[in-house]
Amino acid sequence: MHLDAKVHQYDFTVVSNERVGDGIFRLVISCPELASLILPGQFMNFRVPGDASHIVRIPLSFASSDAGTGTIELVYAAVGEGTRRLSLLEAGDGSDLLGPCGHGWNVRPGGRALCVAGGVGVPPVLAAARALVQAGRTVDVVLGAQTASRLWGETDALALGAGEVIVCTDDGSYGMRGFATIAVEKLFSANEYDLVVTCGPNVMMGAVARIAEDAGVECQASLERMMTCGFGACSTCNVAMRAGGYKACCMDGPVFDAKEVAW
Ligand SMILES: Cc1cc2nc3c(=O)[nH]c(=O)nc-3n(C[C@H](O)[C@H](O)[C@H](O)COP(=O)(O)OP(=O)(O)OC[C@H]3O[C@@H](n4cnc5c(N)ncnc54)[C@H](O)[C@@H]3O)c2cc1C
Ligand code: FES
């Protein structure tokens, strides 16, 4: 199926789908053609088999892709019917997805960058961190979760060769107690950044965007909206802009210049 110049429908096969936390799953799919062209920060729109009445696809970002093995790694929270059925897929099961959707991170060489993720915002932020390290930057990572059992990504962040990795939990069950923004403020007072990338709860991204803007530092934010089509046809994913009007999260985003968003 051809949707526009870049979004196509691809079949995929599940390589593994394992529980890695409380309601958090790590899915690895085989989708060779897409694995070689999807860019960090872009997303895929999954058809999850099993319920003919559930026709809306599930938009998911990815943590890593490997053109050599043809695989893509995702991490998702089972929050509703679609993601619950996704969690039931086993190795060898197959379905289809639309991708690569949207615009990803603007990755370029530069100075020190700070990557800030909360909750299930970790996968696209890890993909950004990896690309920024590959671009020659020093990258610090802040990972936030409600509690230790819902935390994922620390091992992966450490494996990237990132500068400093700070983990925060709201309840203090692991790492620093409190919101990710406390760690961001601490790092900002110790280091000089020229880029911040963030994905997670809206309130966290808005706070991170304000810290970056006050310091005159560029901030890119990957937004989440309810999505029906995923390719610009339905207007369900509007993002209010600071200058007025709306943009489509699925086509203009999900990564936006944080200064342009009406938080
Ligand atoms: C670009 C993009 C990338 C995403 N990447 C990831 C990811 O890497 N990992 C991950 O766990 N989740 C990600 N999400 C969120 C994921 O798409 C939703 O959790 C999922 O669609 C919920 O579907 P469901 O049928 O299980 O839940 P539903 O029964 O539809 O809803 C359950 C709950 O999830 C909320 N929800 C539903 N759809 C979305 C949505 N599109 N965005 C945010 N909240 C939603 C509902 O408001 C409700 O509270 C992403 C969303 C977008 C837009
Ligand atoms: S999801 Fe339909 S326009 Fe964005």
From TrEMBL:
InterPro entries reported in the protein's UniProt record: 2Fe2S_fd_BS, Cyt_c3_hydrogenase_gsu, Dihydroorotate_DH_ele_sf, Dihydroorotate_DH_Fe-S-bd, FAD-bd_FR_type, FNR_nucleotide-bd, OxRdtase_FAD/NAD-bd, PyrK_electron_transfer
FAD-binding FR-type domain location: 7-107
SUPFAM superfamilies in alphabetical order: Ferredoxin reductase-like, C-terminal NADP-linked domain, Riboflavin synthase domain-like
Gene3D superfamilies for this protein: Dihydroorotate dehydrogenase, electron transfer subunit (2.10.240.10), Nucleotide-binding domain of ferredoxin-NADP reductase (FNR) module (3.40.50.80), Translation factors (2.40.30.10)
Entry cofactors: [2Fe-2S] cluster
Keywords, comma-separated and alphabetical: 2Fe-2S, Electron transport, FAD, Flavoprotein, Iron, Iron-sulfur, Metal-binding, Transport
Family statement: Belongs to the PyrK family.
PANTHER family per the UniProt record, alphabetical: DIHYDROOROTATE DEHYDROGENASE B (NAD(+)), ELECTRON TRANSFER SUBUNIT (PTHR43513), DIHYDROOROTATE DEHYDROGENASE B (NAD(+)), ELECTRON TRANSFER SUBUNIT-RELATED (PTHR43513:SF3)
Identification of the protein by name: Dihydroorotate oxidase B, electron transfer subunit
Lineage: Bacteria, Bacillati, Actinomycetota, Coriobacteriia, Coriobacteriales
